[in-house]
Amino acid sequence: MLSRARRHFSRCPDIDAIAQAWADGQANYGLRLAAVTETDPLTWRRYRSANYVNGSHDPASEPSLTVQYNTKPGTPTVLSPLTGAATDDTTPTLSAKSTDADGNTVTLSFEVWKSDGTAALQSGKSVPVASGATATWTPGTALAQGSYKWRAMASDGTDSSAWSSFQSCTVDTTKPGAPFVSSTDYPQDGKWHGGAGTAGKFTFIPASGTSDLAGYVYSLDGAAAQTVSATGSASVPTRRAGWRARSATSAVITWSRSRRSRRWPS
User: Fold this and answer.
1) By CB count within 10 A, which of 79, 180, 204, 239 is most buried?
2) Which CATH number fits the domain that encloses residue 149?
3) Are residues 222 and 167 part of one domain?
């Protein structure tokens, strides 16, 4: 909030503070020049500036008060990545949006912090966007594998919003290990098994040391890939007309899938 006053008397009140109090909702919204006693009708006063010209309040010649009011933009709504998200992108794009009640364009500031909140690691600003539009920013330096937190703040060029709440995310560039596939219906013994329409069950076992498994992606004999969620071993039944296989691995191609959506073929 900005204010300007032309002051032509020696003891001028702090007009800036008064105007800001109005904007903040102070109950008394007026300026008052009081007589010595307000109960004696003989002590009335009339005041006029020594700079009076014609009462037009021309700020170039007569005392005047000009107030420019501005509403702070709203606290940003964070969009991506949200808490719990994980990515293998070492320069993930952060996005958020803020609404400005006056319809001004807004610029969002972003900060990336260590996960324990002890230090800000990188910061930057989006390009100006329309009120309510999505603003984005990408870290200029690649993030090492690990966990981070980030937040956003909006500015309309005059005032700034409060910071958003922190969101936590993880950068993980390590692929999960290749899974092991087994089947009692189609054992890996080099022989033909099954027949047309004969169902089979396949078990997927994560590689040793896999700690962030989210599931498996598998394809049966070149068909469209399917996904099964799992944090450990998983079994899937399959049936395909006119299909028989020599072994589990000759029929099924499988990938492990981590929480970061990276996968590694078996």
Assistant:
1) 204
2) 2.60.40.10
3) no
**How far is Cα 226 from Cα 218, in angstroms, rounded to an integer?**
5
Domain limit, last residue, from 69, 101, 118: 69
Cβ neighbours around 257 below 10 Å, total: 23
Query: Does the pTM exceed 0.70?
Result: no
Residues 7 and 50: their CA atoms lie apart, in Å, by 11
Please tell me the distance from the alpha carbon of residue 76 to that of residue 73, in angstroms, as a whole number: 8
Question: Strands 65-68, 2-5: parallel, antiparallel or unpaired by DSSP?
Answer: antiparallel
Tens digit of each residue's pLDDT (9 = 90 or more) over 163-201: 999 999 999 887 777 788 888 877 777 777 776 667 778
Structure confidence at residue 7 (pLDDT): 44
Q: Tell me the three state secondary structure of residue 18.
A: helix
Nearest to 181 by CA among 266, 261, 98: 266
70-95 average pLDDT score? 94
Question: Domain containing 90: what range?
Answer: 77-171
Pairwise CA distance, residues 36 & 48, whole Å: 17
- Other CB atoms within a 10 A radius of the CB of residue 118 amount to 7
Question: What would the pLDDT profile of 108-165 be if each residue is shown by its tens digit?
Answer: 999 999 999 999 999 999 999 999 999 999 999 999 999 999 999 999 999 999 999 9
Phi/psi at 41 (nearest 5 deg)? Answer: -65, -15
Residues 145 and 104 in one domain: yes
Q: Which long-range contacts (CB under 8 A, 24 or more apart) does 54-62 make?
A: 59/4, 59/6, 62/6
High-pLDDT (> 90) share of the chain, %: 36
